[in-house]
Specification:
The complex is a heterotrimer of chains A (69), B (253) and C (436).
Chain A (H helix, E strand, L loop, with lengths): L2 H24 L18 H21 L4
Helix pairs in contact in A: 1-2
Chain B lengths: L3 E6 L8 H10 L9 E7 L6 E7 L8 H5 L5 E3 L5 E3 L9 H5 L6 E2 L4 H4 L10 H7 L32 E2 L5 H4 L6 H5 L5 E5 L6 H6 L4 E2 L11 E4 L9 E2 L13
Parallel strand pairs in B: 1-10
Antiparallel strand pairs in B: 1-8, 2-3, 2-11, 4-5, 6-7, 9-10
Chain C lengths: L18 H27 L19 H12 L1 H13 L5 H25 L3 H11 L5 H33 L6 H8 L6 H34 L12 H28 L7 H31 L3 H11 L4 H24 L4 H23 L1 H5 L14 H24 L6 H12 L1
Classes of the chains: A mainly alpha (69), B alpha+beta (253), C mainly alpha (436).
C-alpha cells in the first residue's frame, strides 16, 4: 500500500470517527425529558462533526494532489 | 420527583379572562401574545347550541414535540415537569411553534420597545400625568431577568429581545419561590389549581381525586401536565365565537 | 512549444466580457441589492416586516416563503451530483458537457439554501454560532443543517475542484490575467496516465460517497415536516420520498435551462448536443412521472375518508383558498410531463420545449413547496383556533428576488473566471502538443 493510499484511508477513517463520535456521543443525547437532553455532552460537538466531514472529503483532495516522491 | 401540573375545572370557568390579564402583567407579554388564553367555544347549530370556555396555558407535555425539534436545546423539559425556553440560546427558527399541536408558542416579531406600542401608557401624556401625578411607573417584574432554577438559565418572562420564541412557563419565577402561577392565584372562582402531582396531599392531587378527567389532544401522545375536569374535550364541530385582536398584523406592521 | 498568440481569447468565454454578459450581471446585481435592502429592513424592524405571524391565536403562518425557498434551493442542488453520478457511475459520457455547470449549480443552490435559512432566523448571528455549538441530532433541523450544508456543500466543492483541475492546468499554460488563479487551482497538476487514472478513481468514489448524502439530505428535509404529529397535512410517511423526487425534478429542470443558456451564449451546439439534452429530458420525465404518482396518491388519500381537520385542509387545497396555487402547480407539472412524454415517444428532442419544461417544473416545485409549508398552519390547527391567512410581504418578496439574483450573479461570475464546460477535446490536443 502506497503512502498516498495509507494517508487517504487514514483521513477517511479519522473523519468518519469524528463524525460518528460527534453525532452519537458528543452532541446532545436523543431524549426529550430532562435538562441534559438540551445540552451537548461536549460543547462545539457539531463543529467537530463538520470538521470530520471536511477531513473525510479532503482525503480525496490529498489522494489527487499529493506528489509521488 | 416533583411533577408540577395544573388542573382546570371547566365547570367553574366563566370566561372572565382575569387569568389572561394576570399572565400578561406578571410575564410582561407584548400585544396580541396570549401565553394563557381562554377560548370561547360554541358547539351545535342554532338554536341547539352550547357555549363553553376553555382555558389553554402551555400544556407542559411530558413527551414534548417542541423540545424534540429545537435545534439548539433552547427549549427544554425540567425534571419537575416544567418546559422552558432559554431565550439566551434561542435562535428564533420557530420550529417549536410549528411542532406544537396546541399553538402555545409566540415569537417576538418586534423589538421590545415597539412590541407594547398598542397598549403601553404614555407616561408623559399631560392628561395621564394629571391623574396619576407621575406616581405609577410602568411596572416590569425584575424577576424576569434572573437566571432560574438549578439549571441556571434565563427562562422567565417575555419580550427580552426580538427574534426569539417564548411561551407560558408556569410562572417559573414564582414557582421557584414557592408561589403558584399568576393565573392560578388570580382566578376569582378557583377554576385553576396548581401543584405537585406526585404529592398526594398537594392542592392539585386532592382537587383531581375521584373526578372524571381529560387532557387535550391526548391521542397525539404528548402526555400533557394540564388536566381538565368538569367538562368534555372540544369536539371538531367547536368554533371560536370571540376572536382575540390580531394585533400585530393590523397595528404597526 | 505551442505557439499561441497572447491575445487569443481563453476558451468558453473566460475572461472576455461581452455586452450580453454584462447586462445579465447588472440585472443580477440590481436584484441582489434589492434583496439586501429588504433584509436590512427585516433586521432593523424585526420580523414583523414579513407577512408571517404566530399561528393559533394570531391566525397567521409562522413559516412562510423563506422556508419554502430553503426546501426549493436545497432541492435544486440535487442536480449536480445526479449528473456527476450519471457520468461517473454509469459512464454516460454524453453528459460531460453539462457536468461542470451542474456541479456549479449544486454549490450555488446550497449556498442560497443556507442563506434562505439564515434570513428566516430571528437571531441569525446567534443562529450560526449556536448551531455549531449546541445543535441537537434529535431535531430534523440539525440533520438538515449540518449534514446537508456542510457535508453536501463541501463534498460538492471538492468534486467541482478535482474534476476541473485538468482544465485549470491547461489554462495555466497560457499567459493571461487569470493565470495565477489557474495555477493555484491546478495545484501542480501533471497530465500523466497515472494522474488520470487517479482522478477517475477518486471522482468515482466521491460520486459514490455523495449519493447517500443526497438521499439523507433531502430525506431529512422531508422529516422536518413529516415527523410533526401535531400538524395535519405534514405528518406522514410520504414526505421524505416526495422531497427527494421533487428535488430531482427541480434540479434536472434547472440544468436543462442553464445548459440551454450556456449553449446559446457560447455557441456550443456540438459540445452540448441533442443526445445530452435527450438524456436529461428522459431523466426529468422519469422523476416527473414518479412525483405525479405521489401527488395522485396524496390527493386520493386526503379525499377518500379524511378526518375533520384533514377535510378542512384538503378543501382549502383543492377548492378553497389555495386552489389556484394547487391546480396551477399541478398544471406546471403535468404539461411538461406531456411534452416530455411526447418527445420521448417520438424520439425528437427539441431544446426549446425542454427549456419550457424545465422552467415550468421549477415554478411547479416552488408552488408545491409553498403548499407544503403554509396551508397546514393556516387551515390545519387541531385546537379550535380560527382559520388563518398569510401573504408574503414586500420585504419577503424583495429577499426572494435577492436570493435568485445572487444565484445568477454567482453563476455569471463563475463563467468568466473558469470554463463552465469541460475543455476535454481541446485539452487533449493542447497537452499532446506540449509533451511532443
Amino acid at each position: 500500500m502506497t503512502k498516498r493510499g495509507v494517508v487517504t484511508i487514514g483521513m477517511i477513517l479519522v473523519g468518519a470517527v469524528l463524525m460518528v463520535w460527534s453525532y452519537f456521543v458528543g452532541a446532545a443525547p436523543w431524549c426529550a425529558t430532562g435538562v441534559e437532553c438540551s445540552n451537548p455532552r461536549v460543547e462545539w460537538a457539531p463543529a467537530l462533526f463538520v470538521l470530520g466531514v471536511v477531513v473525510a472529503f479532503s482525503s480525496a483532495l490529498y489522494y489527487s494532489i499529493a506528489k509521488d516522491k | 420527583m416533583t411533577h408540577y401540573a395544573m388542573a382546570i375545572d371547566l365547570d367553574r370557568c366563566q370566561g372572565c379572562r382575569a387569568c389572561v390579564e394576570a399572565c400578561k402583567i406578571e410575564n410582561n407579554t407584548p400585544s396580541a401574545v396570549f401565553w394563557m388564553y381562554v377560548f370561547r367555544l360554541e358547539e351545535g347549530t342554532y338554536p341547539d347550541t352550547s357555549i363553553s370556555f376553555l382555558p389553554r396555558p402551555c400544556q407542559h407535555c411530558h413527551n414534548p414535540p417542541c423540545v424534540k425539534v429545537c435545534p439548539t436545546g433552547a427549549r427544554f423539559h425540567r425534571d419537575d415537569g416544567i418546559v422552558l425556553t432559554d431565550f439566551d440560546r434561542c435562535i428564533g427558527c420557530r420550529y417549536c411553534e410549528v411542532a406544537c399541536p396546541y399553538g402555545v408558542n409566540f415569537f417576538n416579531w418586534r423589538k421590545p420597545e415597539q412590541a407594547f406600542a398598542d397598549y403601553q401608557l404614555a407616561m408623559d401624556d399631560p392628561d395621564l400625568a394629571a391623574v396619576t401625578g407621575g406616581l405609577i411607573p410602568p411596572y416590569r417584574n425584575p424577576d424576569l431577568d434572573e437566571l432560574q432554577g438549578d439549571e441556571q438559565r434565563r427562562t422567565a418572562g417575555s419580550a427580552h429581545y426580538k427574534g426569539v420564541v417564548e411561551k407560558c412557563t408556569f410562572c417559573v419565577q414564582r414557582v421557584e419561590k414557592g408561589l403558584d402561577p399568576a393565573c392560578v392565584v388570580t382566578c376569582p372562582v378557583e377554576a385553576l389549581v396548581f401543584g405537585d402531582l406526585e404529592d398526594p396531599n398537594s392542592p392539585v392531587s386532592t382537587y383531581l381525586r375521584g373526578r372524571d378527567q381529560f387532557k387535550l389532544l391526548e391521542e397525539l401522545g404528548t402526555d400533557p401536565s394540564v388536566i381538565y375536569v368538569g367538562g368534555t374535550p372540544p369536539t371538531p364541530d367547536a368554533r371560536e365565537i370571540e376572536r382575540p385582536m390580531t394585533g400585530v398584523g393590523n397595528a404597526n406592521a | 512549444m505551442p505557439t499561441r498568440d497572447m491575445r487569443q481569447p481563453l476558451p468558453m468565454g473566460v475572461g472576455s466580457l461581452t455586452r450580453g454578459w454584462a447586462a445579465v450581471l447588472a440585472l443580477g446585481v440590481v436584484g441582489t441589492v434589492v434583496g439586501i435592502v429588504g433584509y436590512a429592513v427585516e433586521r432593523t424592524q424585526g420580523m414583523v416586516a414579513t407577512g408571517m405571524r404566530d399561528l393559533g391565536t394570531m391566525q397567521g403562518a409562522t413559516w412562510g416563503i423563506y422556508i419554502a425557498l430553503v426546501v426549493y434551493f436545497v432541492g435544486v442542488s440535487f442536480a449536480g451530483i445526479t449528473v456527476a453520478a450519471l457520468i461517473r457511475l454509469f459512464r454516460l459520457d454524453k453528459l460531460r458537457g453539462v457536468a461542470r455547470m451542474a456541479e456549479v449549480l449544486t454549490v450555488v443552490a446550497l449556498i442560497l439554501g443556507a442563506l434562505a435559512i439564515i434570513v428566516d432566523l430571528g437571531q441569525p448571528v446567534r443562529g450560526v454560532i449556536n448551531l455549531f455549538r449546541y445543535a441537537r441530532p434529535q431535531s430534523p433541523f440539525f440533520g438538515t443543517f449540518s449534514l446537508v450544508i456542510s457535508g453536501y456543500l463541501f463534498a460538492s466543492l471538492v468534486y467541482l475542484y478535482l474534476t476541473a483541475r485538468r482544465d485549470a492546468a491547461v489554462l495555466a499554460r497560457r499567459p493571461s490575467r487569470l493565470q495565477g488563479f489557474f495555477r493555484l487551482w491546478a495545484a501542480g497538476y501533471e497530465d500523466t496516465p497515472e494522474q488520470r487514472a487517479r482522478d477517475r478513481r477518486v471522482t468515482f468514489w466521491l460520486a459514490l460517497a455523495i449519493l447517500p448524502l443526497l438521499v439523507i439530505a433531502h430525506s431529512s428535509l422531508g422529516f422536518v415536516f413529516g415527523l410533526q404529529v401535531g400538524r395535519p397535512g405534514w405528518f406522514g410517511t410520504l414526505q421524505a420520498p416526495a422531497f427527494v423526487v421533487l428535488a430531482g425534478v427541480s434540479g434536472v429542470g434547472h440544468i436543462i435551462v442553464l445548459a440551454a443558456i450556456v449553449r446559446k451564449a457560447l455557441g456550443l451546439g456540438k459540445r452540448i448536443g441533442r443526445d445530452a439534452f435527450g438524456w436529461l429530458g428522459l431523466f426529468l420525465l422519469g422523476l416527473l412521472a414518479t412525483y405525479l404518482y405521489f401527488v395522485v396518491v396524496e390527493v386520493l388519500t386526503i379525499i377518500y375518508q379524511p378526518g375533520v381537520i384533514e377535510q378542512r385542509l384538503s378543501e382549502a387545497l383543492l377548492s378553497g383558498t389555495y386552489a389556484w396555487l394547487f391546480w396551477g402547480s399541478v398544471a406546471t407539472l403535468v404539461v411538461p410531463f406531456l411534452i416530455l412524454a411526447w418527445m420521448a415517444l417520438t424520439r425528437t428532442w427539441r431544446v426549446g420545449w425542454l427549456v419550457t419544461s424545465g422552467i415550468l417544473v421549477n415554478l411547479g416545485a416552488i408552488g408545491k413547496r409553498y403548499l407544503i409549508v403554509v396551508p397546514s398552519q393556516t387551515h390545519g390547527q387541531l385546537l379550535p383556533y380560527g382559520i388563518g391567512s398569510y401573504t408574503p410581504s414586500l420585504v419577503e418578496l424583495a429577499v426572494t428576488v435577492g436570493l435568485f439574483s445572487l444565484g445568477a450573479v454567482l453563476i455569471t461570475l463563475f463563467m468568466k473566471v473558469f470554463p463552465i464546460v469541460d475543455l476535454e477535446t481541446e485539452a487533449s490536443t493542447e497537452l499532446e502538443e506540449v509533451s511532443a
